[in-house]
Design brief:
With 433 residues, this protein is α/β, with parallel strands linked by helices. The protein is 24% helix and 22% strand. It folds into 3 domains: 188 residues, FAD/NAD(P)-binding domain; 64 residues, Alpha-Beta Plaits; 160 residues, FAD/NAD(P)-binding domain (3-Layer(bba) Sandwich).
């Protein structure tokens, strides 16, 4: 059976890899981060069931690692692609980890002794990490990675490592894979809230993004699941969500809906109200888009637990009169009344955008982009994952903003298309003998 390369190891890439591997196809799963799992690993719960996110994702991650037909390439990127359907040659560039992957046991002794603390991107900056670290406790592969940019070479980790797995020197490696098909599941990045400067992100410490709130709410996150104001560490008495930050914004040339923001805000607002009924929670919105199965019922359930919904977009966020907090005013477009609020915590529901590497990867693959920057699929009613280049398929949020169920469904479709190509390539080789 011909091999398949899956680029991107979030939930879409993981599902595509498992579907292909279970059909006997050898899969090379390429991920630029130190661990597979993508953004779903950062979430606390999933809507509309409020199931634990990692309870769904972690078993799939472990299954990928254990599957005999899957080769995981972390800290890796696709450097070059040659050939055509059935006969692709993919060059994968593996960046140095400065860890002996065979010797490392993932025990974490080196992490405990490391004196350097830096910004933790996995925790969206709410927490910190060490210069030698795991992005989170359930990483796959279960190995540390050394951040040479911030490492001060104090030598403590070398002494603490019993297996002597930490390397003083390491170099990039190159792997060349022959593949019958390629599946692109590179996912998304979140909108940079600093581009909406009137909303006060980074100007006021208690203006946070929806992803930062996710890491606060998560029991395994930096605050242990406790919601705290970043200014003083106190529990907020009132929380306000502002929707469509970086979505449906024509001046920023982002006309599209990001699909997940409404439901994510409703989910987190509901979790806050259920755990802390004393906290007032208000969601400001343009339109509530609850389009999926059970989503409208979820919206009504949020109202039932006391989440307040107000249709209107706030004005600029200012310091209040005593300078110790925030205030803004908003017109309720349903009543015409103007409300002034002084929230303790302001959450910006940031939208989804293509990853930084999407344009470069599309260029290597010979694929066009949408005006929004996402990779363009055929968009035929009969073919939602195909591209203009036979043998290359695109799925998940690499095509457009999608929630988890839609991302998984599209990756399963792409996997089966790739399986057909792999089967054809194998049959062709047999006939040529």
């Amino acid at each position: 059976m011909g091999d398949v390369v899956v680029i991107g190891a979030g939930v879409s890439g993981i599902q595509a890899a498992l579907d292909l591997a279970n059909h006997g196809v050898t899969v090379h799963l390429v991920e630029r981060e130190p661990t597979i799992g993508g953004h779903m690993a950062q979430l606390d719960k999933t809507f509309p069931t409020n199931d634990c996110s990692m309870c769904i994702l972690s078993p799939k991650m472990v299954e990928v690692q254990r599957h005999a037909n899957i080769r995981i390439h972390t800290l890796s990127e696709v450097e070059k692609i040659e050939g055509d359907a059935g006969h692709f040659r993919v060059t994968i560039r593996e960046h140095p980890r400065y860890i002996d992957m065979d010797a490392c046991t993932g025990c974490g002794d080196c992490i405990e002794i490391c004196p350097v603390e830096v910004y933790n991107r996995f925790d969206a900056g709410v927490g910190v990490r060490k210069a030698i670290y795991k992005p989170h406790p359930q990483v796959v592969p279960d190995r540390v990675v050394k951040d040479t940019e911030h490492c001060i070479e104090c030598g403590l980790c070398y002494d603490a490592c019993g297996p002597r797995a930490i390397l003083h020197e390491d170099a990039e490696k190159e792997h060349v894979v022959d593949a019958a098909a390629i599946v692109v599941t590179t996912g998304y990045d979140i909108f940079d809230a600093r581009k909406k400067s009137p909303l006060g992100y980074l100007k006021f410490p208690d203006v946070v993004t929806s992803l930062e709130l996710e890491r606060m709410i998560n029991a395994s996150g930096p605050t242990g699941g406790k919601i705290r104001r970043l200014s003083d560490g106190k529990e907020p008495k009132s929380i306000v969500f502002i929707q469509c930050v970086g979505s449906r914004d024509m001046p920023l040339k982002r006309p599209y809906c990001s699909c997940v923001c409404c439901m994510q805000a409703i989910k987190n607002a509901m979790l806050i109200r259920e755990k802390h009924p004393e906290i007032e929670v208000t969601i400001f919105y343009m339109d509530i888009r609850a389009y999926g199965k059970g989503y409208e019922e979820y919206y009504e359930r949020a109202k039932g637990v006391g989440v307040r919904f107000l249709r209107g977009m706030p004005s600029d966020v200012h310091a209040d009169n005593n300078g110790s907090g925030m205030c803004f005013q908003v017109e309720n477009t349903e009543t015409g009344g103007v409300t002034v609020l002084h929230p303790d915590l302001l959450v910006l529901s940031v939208g989804i955008q293509p990853t930084d590497a999407t344009a470069a990867l599309a260029g290597k693959l010979g694929l066009p982009l949408e005006e929004t920057g996402f990779i363009r699929s055929v968009h035929d009613a009969m073919d939602t994952v195909g591209t203009i280049r036979p043998g290359i398929y695109v799925a998940g949020a690499a095509i457009a903003p999608k929630d988890i169920p839609d991302s998984v469904a599209s990756s399963e479709s792409a996997a089966m298309r790739a399986f057909i190509d792999a089967k054809k390539a194998t049959a062709a080789r047999v006939r040529s003998r």
